[in-house]
Design a protein that fits this description.
Layout lengths: L2 H21 L4 H26 L9 H11 L1
Length: 74
């Protein structure tokens, strides 16, 4: 997982929290809608970044894989 992927994940989580605090969902269905809205904020940022750079930001490599590869090199 790249730094950009981590940042986008943090953006989705922070956006979801902020939207949740503003809307104060009353049940699970409303909470789901808030989570989708928070995720959409990160999705828009991801698409914008990919459009500007012309390359994919999200990789198939997980953080665990990166750590394992780093340990092997040491």
């Amino acid at each position: 997982m790249t730094n950009t992927e981590l940042i986008l994940n943090m953006l989705a989580e922070a956006s979801t929290k902020d939207i949740s605090q503003a809307i104060n969902p009353k049940n699970f269905k409303e909470s789901q809608k808030v989570a989708q809205q928070g995720g959409n904020v990160a999705k828009v940022a991801l698409k914008e970044l990919e459009d500007k750079t012309g390359k994919k930001v999200v990789t198939s490599i997980s953080a665990k894989t990166l750590l394992e590869n780093k340990k092997r090199k040491e």
